[in-house]
Structures are given as C-alpha cells and as structure tokens.
Amino acid sequence: MNTRKPLGRIGELVRTFGSAVAAAAAVERGHRPTNQDLVMLGIDPLHFDRIRKY
C-alpha cells in the first residue's frame, strides 16, 4: 500500500474491491479472470489454473 499519501490507501482499497468484483463476474460467466485481477487479490495465476470444476 502507498504510505506516502493518506488517500492512497483508499484508492488501493477501491482497486482491490474492483478486482474482486471483476474476478467474481468472470468466474460466474464461466471465463477466466485476468492475471492482473488475480495478482491484485493475492492469487497466483498458475495456481488458479489448477482449480478443477466439479
């Protein structure tokens, strides 16, 4: 997180929430989320590819 600007943390929170919404929407549609969204959420894209559907 950006510690130099007080509002930097709020921006980071908004970007993280946006990535979560985008990733959830992609999975719900049956698509793969972008690597950028996965990394922002702390998910390794290579490990995401190993998830199997049941």
Describe it for me?
It is a single chain. The chain is mainly alpha-helical and 54 residues long. Helix content is 61%, strand content 0%. The protein has helices at residues 8-29, 35-40, 45-49. The chain is elongated and about 45 Å long. The mean pLDDT is 89.
Blueprint of the fold:
Blueprint: H1 8-29, H2 35-40, H3 45-49
For the termini, the CA-CA separation is: 36 Å
Structural class: mainly alpha
Number of domains: 1
Question: Main sheet?
Answer: none
What is the H/E string? HHH
**What is the mean predicted local confidence, pLDDT?**
89
Radius of gyration: 13 Å
Beta-strand level of the residues, as a percent range? under 5%
The geometry reads as elongated
Sequence stretches where pLDDT stays below 50 over 5 or more residues: none
Helix content: 55-70%
Strands, count: 0
Tally of helical segments: 3
What's the gist of this structure?
Helices cover 61% and strands 0% of the residues.
Could you list some keywords that capture this structure?
single chain, 54 residues, mainly alpha, 3 helices, 61% helix
